[in-house]
Amino acid sequence: MDIQTAITFCLEMIGTVAFAASGAMVGAGCSMDIFGVCVLGVVTAVGGGIIRDIVLGILPPTVFLNSKYALAAVITSCLVFFAYYMKKMEPGQHSSQAFERILLIMDSIGLGIFTVMGVNTGIRQGYGSNVFLLVFVGTITGVGGGLLRDMMAGVPPYIFVRHIYACASIVGAIVCVWMQQFGAVWAMVMGSCVVVLIRYLAAHYRWNLPKLPR
Fold first, then answer.
1. What are phi and psi of 57, to 5 degrees?
2. What's the predicted TM-score (pTM) here?
3. 147 Cβ neighbours under 8 A, 6+ residues apart
4. Other C-beta atoms within 10 Å of 208: how many?
5. Does the chain have fewer CB atoms within 10 Å around its N or its C terminus?
6. Which of 42, 195, 60 is nearest to 117 (CA)?
7. pLDDT by 10s per residue, the chain, length 214
8. What's the Rg (C-alpha) of the chain?
9. CA–CA distance, 11 with 118 (Å, rounded to integer)
10. What DSSP designation does 182 have?
11. Are the CB atoms for 115 and 107 separated by under 8 Å?
12. What number of other Cβ atoms are within 10 A of residue 25's Cβ?
């Protein structure tokens, strides 16, 4: 395994765990049982990649040929489920603001990593000169899982109502495509960082807005 392959695999696993955690947190917040939490975690972690693979003609999608991503998502979801309900049984409920901040962190990390993974997959499939397609598959890989998660949970999709989401993914995908001239690893790292930074700045601005008098 060369260095680029190793780094790509590590990023994929980090993104899978982060997105699975965000999906499991939404499921636990909706009072789902452990099966529902696991389903939501897995869908969030691999949903965007499945859509990407279908768009690129990779059939069957990678997740069905390599079960380690789904397995990592299931384990993460179970850990979140038990941690959530053990915490809930203790005196004093968790802060909704703390919950939102943790969800933001997990979702931002997953969004950044999966966006550049989508771009990287498109390049590996031979579409390196098609910037529009690369940005599209990068964005759909990043936001697809979260969109499916929210639809299944019956909540307003995060992509439409929370901070800057899809726009951050689009900018990160563009940065990743442009940075390819400096090497694939640098492109993925910089693209991911840009997405996380944009999401953080947008959330920081929202949390620090002065409250209007009623």
1. 80, 25
2. 0.87
3. 47, 157, 158, 159
4. 7
5. C
6. 195
7. 678 788 889 999 999 999 999 999 999 989 899 999 999 999 999 999 999 999 999 999 999 999 999 999 999 999 999 988 877 655 444 456 777 788 888 889 999 999 999 999 999 999 999 999 999 999 999 999 999 999 999 988 877 776 688 999 999 999 999 999 999 999 999 999 999 999 988 877 665 544 444 4
8. 17
9. 12
10. G
11. no
12. 26
The tokens of 26 are what?
Answer: 């939404």
DSSP secondary-structure letter at 180?
Answer: G
Amino acid letter for position 66: N
C-alpha 184/C-alpha 62 separation (Å) is 20
Can you spell out the DSSP letters for 51-93? HHHHHHT-SS-HHHH-THHHHHHHHHHHHHHHHHHHHHHSSSP
- Nearest Cα neighbor of 138 from 149, 150, 124, 152 is 124
> How far is the C-alpha of 108 from the C-alpha of 204, rounded, in Å?
13
Q: Around 90, how many Cα atoms within 13 Å sit in the side-chain half-sphere?
A: 9
Is residue 116 a contact partner of residue 138, using CB atoms and an 8 Å limit?
Answer: yes
